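Q: Predict the assembly, please.
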Amino acid sequence: RKEVEQDPGPFNVPEGATVAFNCTYSNSASQSFFWYRQDCRKEPKLLMSVYSSGNEDGRFTAQLNRASQYISLLIRDSKLSDSATYLCVVNSASTSGTYKYIFGTGTRLKVLA
Amino acid sequence: NAGVTQTPKFQVLKTGQSMTLQCAQDMNHNSMYWYRQDPGMGLRLIYYSASEGTTDKGEVPNGYNVSRLNKREFSLRLESAAPSQTSVYFCASREENWSPLHFGNGTRLTVT
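A: Predicted assembly structure:
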């Protein structure tokens, strides 16, 4: 089982739609969680951190479910400019005391006019 | 504020050639990372540096070496490039243990 798993998509949705992505992780000791956005051939850019109580930033809402070991990202009122790949990232402390970031392979979103 | 800067942006090498990818950050971060990204795979960690003067291997270190020159700079060296090293390379840094990573623009490397 991969440490971080995402549905690769693509998710094709019309403008204005609401779309949700899930990401599951295997390490129950994981401590911090993030969603990144990556445009074609560009660097990943932080979209939002994910907090235990859930958090919202404009049209974007992130949730964390520690019991079931998944995080989610909800995008409301989708815009054409939301078309991108969304990466789930999980940060855990390793047995050596270092911190490692595990990336999902990403979920592709295409918002259609 | 430039953030994380990588050079070069593009590079083509012949098999067996060597090169160094440069990375610098101006955010006073302690930890720096080198990742590679290949189609259909998530970002994979090559090497990281938890603090100035320390470096450690990541998931895919073979064929690479790194130098943490000072707090700002972390370079990645390919001593003898191979076609399997054709990839997009990203440098990143972070502020604290649980902080998010900040990425540079990437270096697109092709080895023929």
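Residues 44 and 71 of chain A are 18 Å apart (CA to CA). Chain A touches chain B at residues 4, 31-32, 34, 41-46, 49, 87, 89, 91, 93, 98-106 (CB under 8 Å).
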